[in-house]
């Protein structure tokens, strides 16, 4: 399941993809009609993937775009596949330059018009993980390589070869993050202004905007390439999460670490102070729990406990 401030997407056990919420300007990829208008108040299935006998295995969404991994339904146990994106093509966040508007020819290829047909993104290998930020996207291939694209403002993408649209640094197609080419990446997460990734060695790297200590390096400096979060290097991290104002990690013991902006109690530290390096949450309510999942909202955080381990 994936959600943002105005719509939600979900995948069932059969690999069928559904969405509901705001379909204004056709942003969800469903045709608009007089009955539903701009809002879908019930889940609607994407027939495109069903008709192509594709099974959706993962979905992510940014503010104005959607990305999914889809594989052939005949490959029932396959967890990797081809990457499809749709939504607002501004800043190259979709991973391709398409001069043929899918359905709305009257708009004459305006970048402010939503692409309503999912389109495959060209990559050298099958994709196993995806994550969407506000105006950028990231994916991991079967070889453990990390690719990013979209706006590179504040070094969000961690890459060097960029072009400029006015004063906006952009990358329009998936680009290898060369700094991490010798690491096998198993998870990537995008916040609104930063990224983090988890390696097979259970270490965490972060980069992008450093506002409020969100990168976890002890300061508010931004980084234009991935840097190891030293505070977590010996903690055997198994899961990470990135939000608008905070970051999180869980280690193999089920301990939860949070850092970044503390306003509104986002970090669960009993105060609203900013935290500049990862700090374990030791509140009595979860201190004895084994945490296996954490999600960061705009003004809040939630986590799940138990003996379950997420397979990443």
Relevant terms:
312 residues, mainly beta, Methylamine Dehydrogenase, Chain H, four-stranded antiparallel beta sheet, 2% helix, globular
Number of DSSP helical runs: 1
Strand fraction equals 35-45%
Describe the biggest sheet?
A: 5 strands, antiparallel
**Integer average pLDDT:** 89
Percent helix, as a range, is under 10%
Distance, first to last CA: 16 Å
Low-pLDDT ranges: 101-109
- Indicate the overall shape: globular
Q: What CATH architecture of the domain at 2-182 do you see?
A: 7 Propeller
In N-to-C order, the SSE pattern is EEEEHEEEEEEEEEEEEEEEEEEE
Rg: 19 Å
**Could you give the count of β-strands?**
23
Strand order of the largest sheet: 9-10-11-13-12
What is the SS-derived class? mainly beta
- CATH superfamily membership of the domain at 2-182: Regulator of chromosome condensation 1/beta-lactamase-inhibitor protein II
**CATH topology (fold) name of the domain at 2-182:** Methylamine Dehydrogenase, Chain H
Give the class-level CATH name of the domain at 2-182.
Answer: Mainly Beta
